[in-house]
Structures are given as structure tokens and as C-alpha cells.
Design brief:
916 residues; alpha+beta; Barwin-like endoglucanases; six-stranded mixed beta barrel; five-stranded antiparallel β-sheet
């Protein structure tokens, strides 16, 4: 579809709206330097202000375009460098300092100095390799005196997607030519007739041209579970960006993934992470944490073991994912907890004992010890007993029956339960820089506590289950980007018997913890590392996206630049309870979210009036009271721009100072809005437009992301300040993923040499195994109720194609075994013509509390839908310290992909309920 839109709406005819949109709001006109090695030319990094001799602050973070009228090189406003250079030019106004307009040049096709033959990566299941296509280029001399070839992202996109424009090279001749990326090419992969693709692409773009961008793609989160999820998303974004649909009400990319948007973000962060008392919080990306804690990193399959070796000479794709994760931790790209094998409290104490007086002296001493390898990164020795997670709280999550990808590895290595793993660490791919013990540990966790209002698989595995209140027994709020309101929850009854609300549960735990800390963990201090985070100066820490490892001597080890930020944090554990039930003084110093700052002094005073002043003895006395869940809710609402007009105005004013734009009108008329839980209960209230989110909701508009960017010229948080087609980080170039492209799903054979042998027991079929969401529950919730289990068949089910089933002697509703090297499932089969051949669906998530017989393979009860999956992490998701590719909590980091799973299905001939 990208090929069709570029060919018909940019070459054969030019839609003025599309051209204007991509010039203003995308990186298509920005200049890319070609990297040449003999006869091989490949696209390299963005041309920067420093390359052309401009002397200005943060020039290495300011990208360059060529003006259409003058042919001169220009550095337009709004780039990452403009965000942090303390000027007011972080906006998308295409003007020079003298007020004259810049008209970015999209293409050099008409006045190129040369047509360069550029090599592009091409990955397919059969003939992956490279494509060589002509690209129009200009010659220019850099400030270092080098002559380089440059082209635009637009010209690279044209060549990459096969739109020839009369240029030489390996271009397709027409839509019927099966070369990448034509409609005919995709037909052999998707099975969708090329004429349908052409028709939909034309209609999608034509509608956008007629309506100025009101073409929309609505989708769920399923693509996020594939290994190459980022490339799938980028390919989809091609369509809405090229048609000018993103940032337009009625257009763009509508990503429906459930209740995942915290509208009152500023206040929620303060309460959730105790920002009013102590900073920074301990934030960890869950995927990396569980990847190491469950030892799934020890069961990787080496690329050549499943024919995934590519012809694009990649360095980092050949590295074990655990090694890349360890690299990302020490370069400051990702968080890593635990931090070191040595205790972080002891490290500070030892430095103090050696004479380090100031915090900076302590940090300097610790950094020197790290450089001398006297201190060991915990991620590089995850199976050392000192690095085990010992106490684990599973709160409002069915980790062991629903969300835990690679369930059997959780069972074996994290909690030490029965497992059905059919592989071994010895024949699996092992990391080089991350240590592996001779025997993989079993049962790292000493105490597993679940907090839930129902008995799930997680509860059954737990040492302690704390009963929780349901929605109808507590006070709470929720919000999403799909609803314009902030929704209140009110207790219809008090929690029955021992059940408690979430807030009260953790309040009571914190009280006991503080009492124990008086004796066992008095006031202390520790060293703490944080990554080079998004929306902080950490995102401009590592210029040009070059990977330089201080351990190899490629660069000096500098906290906050070439390694994580280091801080000395005072820990007063005996006062944790008192801090939880009151608002702390750190709030007065100011707070915010996503780089937007709010003055904390007036907020602190307002909170005292709203919540009341605590009269409890101790640290909380005289401070705003946060004892109850209702207090916490009202504090969040008052501190957040989406629910408090004053905060919204302050937030927009903060952003206005950085952008130089007048943003006052966005929250005009909402200054006096001041939501409380009681007010929300009386009547639903529209959320207020806030700068921590990108949608505009004034005058009853529905939330549509990025409308604030397109209508108020506020930049995106990217390198160019525009929506990105091109990513020039060294690892992205190394992988061949600078531009959106097709990458086939991984194909891991169900077993590799050395795995446990499964005895033959009748015919079997190998299928791709997928776990989409089900209809008969909300994840595992309600699936085992009588009503839900009777709406269809109840119990664990696997859906597959009726012809595939017939080929191995299956009849509808037979019991089956599903298995691979990761584990074994027993379930009943649903045969249907509606599932494509070669696929099987086991709906997420059914739990295994009803109707699960034993398996023939190992005589144990069958596993969950995640028993045949394993976390596969993609190293490109670990990049950090580089503009939009910087870690942010619940924003950017590795996702737990498991969709690239292949499994074997056969009939379960002996149904054993293991009742004896």
C-alpha cells in the first residue's frame, strides 16, 4: 500500500495537502549522508548543523534540510537540539531568524548532482539479501573538508519501496512485478489479491486527500506481540503519515489496547512513586526483569539454528540478547535492578569509610571501582544467589496463569514449582558477557504473595494470598484515551471479612515494614542508577547514535553521558509508613511529567486545604493527609492538568516557554475546573486538554493523538522534531532497519538437537501458535464462572483449521496435546474452517483451574496458554540515550514478544484426570 500511495499520490500526481503535511510534520525532507565503502553505498546518519559549520548550541542534535527556492542548507526549528538549547525555538514554524519562510525540498530528482546506486536491505523467507537502486544525490563539503553525498529521506523512501521514477536499479516495472514492495509481491506472503491492495490503498489515500486527512486505521495490540512488532507498526504508520492523517480528528492510527492511559498522570506519578518524598523512583522494564529472573535467556535459539542468518552484515543481531541487554544497562540505555552483585548500601558505606565526604566523591569512587571491575553488574551474573528476587508481590495480576510469557520457566526457575520444559540449557545458545552457572537455579523466590479478589493460578502457586476488594467495595478512578471522562469507582459495600482495598493493603504492609525497619534496617543511604531517560537531557547524551562502550576504552566512563546517572539516595525505612500517609515536602520544589513543569508550592497549600492536615504524631504531622484511598484520589486529581484547570494552565505555560508559542487558549475557560472524587461521582466530567498528552479536547472534541502538534506547531519528541520515517541510530543501521521494511516472522523449530525426545503417539502437525484475546472473559477473569463456561464449551480450548485437524485424525472436541521445547498443554480442540491452515489459536487467557487433564508426554497436568511460549526480546528495543529512542517507564523499552511460536499438535489418546 505504501508503494501504491507514493506512486499515485506523490509521483503521478501530487496532492498539495499531502506535500504540505509531510514537509511540515515528517522527516521526509531532512538530509541523510550516504556511507560509502568501495562500490557499496548505504544510507547513513542525518546531516547535522555541526557538519555544515554552523556554530550554535547543541548543533550535533540539529538536523538539516535544503530550501526549495534558494538551494541553501537550513536548520529548521523544532529539532531535539532546539528543545534543550534554552532558547524558545522548539516549535515547527518553518521560519528563519529574520522571519522569512523555509520551504524544505522533498526530492533531488530534478536537479541531482548524481544518481548513486544505494544498497538497501531486503529480508524475506526465501530470497533475503539486498536490493541496489538508484537514488538522486547532491554533493556537499562538510566542515571537516570532506565531500559527502546527501539525499532526502523522501528519496530514500521512494527507492526503498520500489517507486522507480525513471531511475536505474533493481526497480519493479509495475504493480504486477513481484519485486519488493509491490502489490504482487505481497500477495505471495499474505494471500490478499493484489487488486484488493491497490483498491484499498487508492481509496484510503483518496479519502484523505478529499477530507484533509480523515482516513483512519483502527487496530488492537496483537501486532505488539510479534518479534518484529516495531517494523509492523512503522509500516502501518507509513500510510497515515503519507496521507496526512495523523493528528487529525477522524484520521490517524487508533490503537485500541484497553485501559492503558492514565490521564491524571502528573498527580498519579507523585502518589504512585512517592515523588513528594524522595527521588528518583526505582523503575524497571518488566520484560528484561522476567527474562533474567526466569532464566529464559538461557534457552535462546541461535539464529543459524533456524535459518534466520541474513545477508545484511549485522554486528549486534549476532549478539545474544542477554549480552545486548547487559550492554544497554552499562551504557545507561535501560534500567537494571538489582543493580550490582554487591549491596548498593554497602558500596556507599565502604566509600564513606575510605574518606569520601561528599556524594560526588562517593559516586566518583564507585565509578572507579566499576571501571576496574571490582564491582559487578548484577545483570552480568543474574544467577548469583545475591541477585535473586527473594520476596515477590503479585498485585492485581495473574502472572502465573495469564500474563507470564514462558510459563514453565516461571514455574521452574522463579518459584520452583513443577514444570514441563522439554529443552535444556546445554544445547541452547548461551551469552558471552553474562555469566551462566553450571546448573540453572530452581526456585529463586522465597516468598510469593498474591493480592487478589479471586483464586487464580497465581494464587494457587503463592505462599500467601491477601484478599482484595472488588470494584464495588472500594474507591478508585480510571481513565483511557478511548473515553473523554475520568471514571469514578465507589464502594457500594465495605470489603467483606478480611478483604481490603489496594490502598489499605499496602498501607498496613508499610506500617509493619516500618516497625521492623526500626530494628533491622535503620536510616541509611545507597547508590542508585537511572537510565538516560526520555524527556530529560539524558536523551541528548550520546550524539549521532554511535555505540561507544567505555569498558572497551572507546570512550570515557562518564555518569549521565556514557553510562547511567548515579545518585546517592537517603533511605529512611522506619518512616516509610508515615511518608505513605502524608504529602511530603519535595512536592514544593516542583513536579510534572514528560518535561512539563508545575510549581509545587501552591499545590502543596491547596492539598492541605483539600485533604486536611494530619494530626498523627511523627513525620506526617502537620502535612496534607493521605491516609485513605479517597485522600489519594483527590490528591491525584488536584495535582493533574487533566482534572484541574489551574494545573492545565500552568502546564501549557511551561510548554509555551520552551516552544515560544501562545498556548493559553487551549485551556481557556477551564481554569476554574477542579475535580474531586465526589464531583466525579455526581456527574461524569470531561478531561481537560493537558500538555502531557497530545490530544485536544476543547469544545467537546474527542481525543485524537497529536492534534496539538499539528494545530499548534508543537514538535514531536524526536530527533528532527517531526514524525519519523528514518531512524539513524547505529544499531538500527546495523540491523538494516533505518526505514520501515518487511521482516518475516521468526521460525523456531519446535525442537532443536539435544532437546528431550518426545515419543511418537500418533499423527502430529506443526503449526504457528497464536494467543489472541478471548470473548468469554476479561483475560482470565470470569472464565471459570458458571455463566461464562456455559456460553461456549468452557475449559481450555485450542482452535485450528478443520482440514489440519482431519489430517491427524482429530474430531471436533477431542482432547489434544500441544507441545514444543518450552512446555506442554492439554486442551480440547475446536475445528473450524475460519482458522487458516497452519495456524492454531489458544485464546488469552483461560487459566488452568478447570478441565485440564494430564499429558502423555510427562504425566503431569497440562500447562497454560503460555506453556509453549517463551519471551523473545529484540535488541533494537534496548537502545537508549538517543532522542526518542530513550527509556521511559511504560513508554519505551523491550516488549515481551511471544507470537513467533511454533508448536506441535496431536491427539491426546489417553485422557487421565490424575485423580489418584
Amino acid at each position: 500500500m505504501t508503494h501504491v500511495i507514493l506512486k499515485e499520490f506523490y509521483v503521478e500526481r501530487q496532492v498539495p495537502y499531502f506535500i504540505d503535511y509531510v514537509k511540515r510534520f515528517t522527516d521526509l525532507p531532512f538530509l541523510i549522508m550516504l556511507d560509502e565503502d568501495g562500490n557499496d553505498a548505504r544510507s547513513g546518519r542525518f546531516l547535522r548543523s555541526t557538519d555544515i559549520g554552523h556554530e550554535e548550541p547543541l548543533g550535533e542534535w540539529k538536523t538539516v534540510v535544503m530550501d526549495e527556492a534558494t538551494g541553501k542548507l537550513e536548520v529548521p526549528n523544532g529539532t531535539q537540539g532546539h528543545r534543550w538549547d534554552e532558547d524558545t525555538n522548539w516549535n515547527l514554524e518553518l521560519t528563519r531568524k529574520d522571519g522569512s519562510l523555509i520551504d524544505p525540498k522533498l526530492s533531488f530528482i530534478e536537479d541531482a548532482d548524481e544518481t548513486a546506486m544505494v544498497t538497501f536491505p531486503y529480508f524475506s523467507e526465501e530470497d533475503g539479501g539486498t536490493l541496489e537502486r538508484g537514488v538522486p544525490v547532491k554533493f556537499l563539503e562538510t566542515s571537516e573538508g570532506r565531500t559527502v553525498k546527501v539525499t532526502t529521506v523522501y528519496d530514500l523512501m521512494m527507492a526503498h519501496t520500489g517507486v522507480g521514477r525513471g531511475l536505474e536499479g533493481d526497480y519493479p516495472s509495475d504493480y504486477d512485478d513481484p519485486k519488493a514492495y509491490t502489490p504482487a509481491w505481497q500477495e505471495s506472503i499474505t494471500g490478499v489479491h493484489k487488486n484488493h491492495v491497490i483498491k484499498v490503498a487508492k481509496e484510503f489515500a483518496d479519502n484523505a486527500a478529499r477530507t484533509n486527512g480523515k482516513s483512519m486505521i483502527a487496530m488492537g495490540g496483537g501486532t505488539n506481540h510479534w518479534f518484529h512488532s516495531d517494523q509492523i507498526y512503522r509500516s502501518i504508520l507509513n500510510l497515515v503519515l503519507l496521507t496526512g492523517s495523523q493528528g487529525v480528528n477522524g484520521g490517524g492510527w487508533a490503537h485500541y489496547v484497553g485501559q492503558e492511559k492514565v490521564r491524571p498522570l502528573e498527580g498519579w506519578q507523585q502518589v504512585a512513586f512517592a515523588g513528594d518524598w524522595i527521588k528518583p523512583p526505582r523503575h524497571q522494564n518488566g520484560t528484561s526483569y522476567f527474562y533474567f529472573a526466569t532464566d529464559q535467556f538461557r534457552y535462546e535459539i541461535k539464529p543459524e539454528d533456524h535459518d534466520e542468518e541474513t545477508k545484511w552484515n549485522s554486528t549486534y543481531s549476532k549478539m545474544h540478547p542477554a549480552d545486548v541487554n547487559a550492554l544497554s544497562a552499562r551504557l545507561g540505555w535501560l534500567p537494571s535492578f538489582p543493580q550490582f552483585t554487591q549491596n548498593s548500601i554497602d558500596l556507599v558505606k565502604n566509600s564513606r569509610d575510605k574518606g569520601a565526604a561528599t556524594d560526588q566523591e562517593v559516586i566518583d569512587d564507585i565509578v572507579e571501582q566499576i571501571k576496574d571491575e571490582k564491582i559487578e553488574w548484577a545483570m552480568e551474573n543474574p544467577d548469583h544467589p545475591q541477585n535473586f528476587p527473594r520476596v515477590f508481590f503479585n498485585w492485581r495480576s495473574n502472572l502465573l496463569g495469564d500474563s507470564g510469557k514462558g510459563h514453565e520457566y516461571f514455574a521452574r526457575h522463579l518459584i520452583g514449582g513443577e514444570d514441563q520444559i522439554l529443552s535444556d540449557t546445554e544445547n541452547s545458545w548461551q551469552p558471552e558477557t553474562v555469566k551462566v552457572t553450571e546448573e540453572a537455579p530452581r526456585g529463586k523466590v522465597d516468598l510469593l504473595v498474591s493480592v487478589d479478589f479471586r483464586m487464580t493460578s497465581s494464587g494457587l502457586f503463592s505462599d500467601i494470598v491477601l484478599p482484595a476488594a472488588t470494584w464495588y467495595e472500594k474507591f478508585d478512578i480510571s481513565s483511557t484515551d478511548m473515553h473523554p471522562f475520568v471514571h469514578p469507582f465507589n464502594a457500594a459495600i465495605s470489603p467483606p471479612w478480611q478483604a481490603k482495598s489496594d490502598w489499605n493493603t499496602f498501607r498496613e504492609i508499610s506500617k509493619v515494614f516500618s516497625e521492623l525497619a526500626e530494628k533491622h534496617l535503620p536510616e541509611t543511604e545507597e547508590v542508585m542508577m537511572t537510565p538516560l531517560g526520555h524527556d530529560s537531557k539524558g536523551e541528548i547524551a550520546q550524539p549521532f547514535g554511535k555505540i561507544k562502550d567505555w569498558r572497551k576504552g572507546e570512550v570515557e566512563a562518564i555518569p549521565g553521558k556514557t553510562m547511567p546517572n548515579f545518585q546517592i539516595v537517603k533511605r529512611d525505612y522506619p518512616t516509610v509508613y508515615e511518608k505513605m500517609i502524608s504529602i511530603g515536602p519535595e512536592l514544593k520544589k516542583g513536579y510534572g511529567a514528560k518535561g512539563v513543569k508545575i510549581d509545587g508550592e501552591p499545590v502543596y497549600e491547596e492539598l492541605g486545604k483539600r485533604l486536611g492536615i494530619s494530626k498523627r504524631e511523627g513525620l506526617a504531622k502537620g502535612r496534607p493527609d493521605l491516609y485513605t484511598d479517597k485522600h489519594a484520589i483527590d490528591a491525584i486529581l488536584l495535582m493533574s492538568g487533566a482534572t484541574n484547570g489551574k494545573r492545565a494552565v500552568e502546564g501549557w505555560n511551561s510548554l509555551a516557554k520552551n516552544t515560544g508559542q501562545d498556548l493559553n487558549e487551549i485551556a481557556l475557560g477551564r481554569e476554574d475546573d477542579d475535580y474531586t472524587l465526589d464531583a466525579l461521582t455526581v456527574q461524569p466530567r470531561h478531561a481537560i486538554s493537558t500538555p502531557v498528552w497530545s490530544g485536544l479536547e476543547k469544545d467537546n472534541r474527542r481525543y485524537s493523538p497529536f492534534t496539538v502538534n499539528t494545530e499548534y506547531n508543537i514538535p514531536w519528541r524526536t530527533l528532527t522534531g517531526r514524525q519519523s520515517f528514518y531512524l539513524d541510530h547505529e544499531m538500527m543501521l546495523d540491523y538494516g532497519e533505518a526505514l520501515p521494511l518487511y521482516l518475516p516472522p521468526l521460525y523456531h523449530d519446535p525442537f532443536i538437537p539435544g532437546d528431550k525426545t518426545v515419543k511418537e503417539n500418533g499423527d502430529a502437525i506443526t503449526v504457528r501458535y497464536l494467543t489472541p484475546h478471548q470473548k468469554w472473559g476479561i483475560h482470565t477473569m470470569f472464565t471459570d464462572t458458571t455463566a461464562m463456561s456455559q456460553l461456549f464449551r468452557g475449559w481450555q480450548l485450542v482452535w485450528m483449521n478443520e482440514d489440519d485437524g482431519a489430517s491427524i485424525g482429530l474430531k471436533d472436541n477431542d482432547f489434544i496435546e500441544v507441545y514444543n521445547r518450552n512446555g506442554v498443554i492439554s486442551a480440547r480442540v475446536v475445528l473450524t474452517y475460519r482458522i487458516p491452515k497452519g495456524l492454531a489459536y489458544m485464546y488469552h487467557a483461560q487459566d488452568r483451574t478447570l478441565g485440564v487433564p494430564g499429558t502423555v508426554i510427562n504425566k503431569q497436568r497440562g500447562g497454560t496458554h503460555n506453556s509453549v511460549t517463551r519471551i523473545t526480546v529484540k535488541p533494537t528495543h534496548m537502545i537508549g540515550g538517543y532522542s526518542q529512542l530513550s527509556y521511559g517507564f511504560n513508554y519505551y523499552g523491550p516488549t515481551g514478544q511471544q507470537r513467533d511460536t511454533v508448536a506441535v499438535i496431536r491427539k491426546l489418546k489417553e485422557v487421565d484426570w490424575l485423580e489418584n
